[in-house]
Design brief:
The complex is a heterodimer of chains A (about 240) and B (about 325). With about 240 residues, chain A is mainly alpha-helical. Chain A has nine helices and no strands. Chain B contains ten helices and 15 strands. The chains are: A mainly alpha (about 240), B alpha/beta (about 325).
């Protein structure tokens, strides 16, 4: 536990500017959301300010996502798993502690703000967040469906550029696959590409790759595993 | 004495290239072992396998009694590793890095850390990314020596450093040498010679010899035979005579298995008409160059690494 907190504290110090920027954007987002909500016709007339807020709101949302993506990528690559020159691989780092520290960082600086934003949003709309706990947890699960593949890709990437290229490549391949006729990409029993089982497999696979990489740092095996199973994901064998 | 490092038929292949070939190495506890060899000999690859940074293709390694495959986490509490290619947490200052690493090591000696900082004249408040290469190496040394590791592994630590920095680093090492085992690979043979107790010579992935420095220095001699009349290079010279060459009445070669008692007699019998036979001790650098050059000439004439091994072993 001591090592987890030690690494977490180091990452917090190192990425403090990024953390503050993403938190600031999240606070701005929720403030604007509140303002827009209160400007709705049932609260009062639509003003020029509320239209301007709407545009800021539209641009801010992808910026926040970009900020979180950068934060996650940078914190994971601070102790990258690919390569043989990293300072930490010959230091007494316990892989479980390292993984837990990174998970804690993402939980505190990404999940917690997301949860807080949702809770505040619900409260702004006049409801009690406690009544929506299952929905909020489901939202976090959906976030995990995005974050876990991101973590898996980071764990097999040697730097930020390669990680970004891999991610873009994966998005491109999947978007091509999604446009192919269903008959081409359906499995033998006719399940379509976006079947829930496919997502669950990919989800679990990402988890396995992350754990395997942190425990063993066998990058090529992990890459092949991810690549092979992504192929499976297109249509189960 | 139980070796601090032991390898058995350790091999590493990168595709078709054999980087390390059946390496059998034993570094005795308390030794300062210098692993030398030309560029591409496999020194760095061997060290990386020892440190579990890369995985061997075959063979086994043990470091401080632990199988290298299991060398992770707490096992590194007793090992200090510094490499010329090693990255440092560049976003930290030297002081932050030392403070960060301090928490990982139960045996971290704060007094020793302060002493090393003073000795190396480390600027604690400057970011590592803004430090010179020499300063970065000093910071790496300080962070790897301050917990008094039982084993220090250094991969080309002095490469590209100015003589002053080299001396400072060597001084820092020597002060700890009595309580630790040191394995280092280096091209800086003059420096190594001054403080190493053992030396191993690696060429094309194979360990040609591994022995105590005093034994090595004892068995290598530069031999100059002054003959009474000019004569060509004799045929069928022993394989242990490296780089034989003649000029007028003088025959010169490097004797790689010199024996104080028998060698002068053997040479006198072989060259009865010799006017003088001189045996000059050699520096490690001269020995290294003789082996490397004779290895190269053998490789170009008849590649036979077994013969090469026999010649220098």
């Amino acid at each position: 536990m001591k090592q987890i907190l030690h690494i977490f504290a180091k990452d917090t110090r190192r990425f403090l500017p990024e953390i503050l920027i993403t938190l600031g954007m999240a606070i701005a987002w929720i403030s604007i959301y509140r303002h827009i909500w209160l400007s709705f016709p049932w609260h009062g007339p639509i003003t020029a300010w509320s239209v301007q807020d709407g545009w800021v709101f539209v641009y801010l949302s992808p910026l926040i996502l970009l900020g979180w993506w950068l934060l996650i990528s940078r914190v994971l690559l601070a102790e990258r798993l690919v390569g043989d020159t990293q300072f930490w691989i010959t230091r007494p780092y316990e892989w479980k502690s390292l993984l837990a520290a990174k998970a804690l960082f993402i939980a505190v600086y990404v999940y917690l703000p997301i949860l807080a934003v949702h809770c505040i949003g619900i409260a702004v709309e006049g409801f009690h967040p406690q009544l929506y706990i299952p929905g909020l947890l489901y939202q976090l699960l959906l976030v995990t469906a995005v974050v876990l593949p991101l973590v898996a890709i980071a764990s097999i990437s040697s730097n930020f550029v390669r990680m970004t290229l891999t991610l873009l490549g994966a998005v491109f391949c999947l978007s091509i696959a999604a446009k192919l006729p269903a008959s081409l990409i359906a499995d033998k029993i006719g399940r379509p590409i976006n079947s829930e089982i496919g997502f669950v497999i990919l989800f679990l696979l990402c988890g396995v790759v992350v754990i395997m990489q942190y425990a063993l740092r066998r990058t090529w095996r992990s890459r092949l595993l991810l690549l092979g199973r992504v192929e499976d994901w297109r249509g189960f064998p | 004495m139980k070796p601090a490092i032991r390898t058995e038929a350790l091999s590493k292949k990168f595709g078709r290239t054999i980087a390390v070939d059946s390496l059998n190495l034993a570094v005795p506890e308390g030794a300062i072992y210098a692993l030398v060899g030309p560029n591409g000999a496999g020194k760095t690859t061997a060290i990386k396998m020892l440190m579990n940074i890369i995985h061997p293709s075959a063979g086994a390694t043990e470091v401080l009694g632990i199988d290298s495959h299991r060398l992770t986490g707490k096992a590194f509490n007793r090992i200090g590793y510094v490499s010329e290619n090693q990255e440092l947490p560049e976003g930290m200052t030297a002081g932050e890095m030392l403070s960060y690493f301090r928490a990982f090591y139960p045996t971290w000696d704060l007094a020793l850390e302060r002493q090393l900082v003073r000795q190396f004249d480390l600027p604690l408040d400057r970011k590592l990314r803004h430090l010179s290469r020499g300063m970065k190496m000093k910071a790496a040394f300080a962070s790897s020596l301050a917990y008094r590791p039982s084993l220090i592994v250094l991969d080309e630590p002095f490469s590209g450093l100015d003589p002053l920095v080299r001396d400072e680093l060597i001084e820092g090492l020597i002060e700890l040498a009595s309580e630790t085992t040191i394995l280092l690979s280096s091209h800086d043979l003059a420096e190594i010679e001054s403080f190493s107790s053992h030396v191993g010579y690696l060429e094309q992935g194979r360990l040609l010899f591994s022995e105590e420095m005093s034994v090595l220095a004892g068995r290598f001699r530069e031999v100059t035979v002054t003959l009474s009349s000019p004569s060509p290079l004799p045929a069928k010279l022993p394989a242990t005579w490296l780089q034989p060459q003649t000029a007028d009445c003088v025959l010169r070669f490097v004797h790689s298995s010199f024996n104080e008692q028998s060698s002068p007699r053997e040479l006198a019998e072989r060259f009865p008409s010799a006017r003088d036979i001189a045996f000059d001790p050699m520096s490690l650098r001269s020995i290294f160059l003789a082996i490397a050059k004779s290895g190269r000439s053998r490789t170009t004439s008849a590649p036979d690494s077994v013969n090469a091994k026999e010649a220098v072993a």
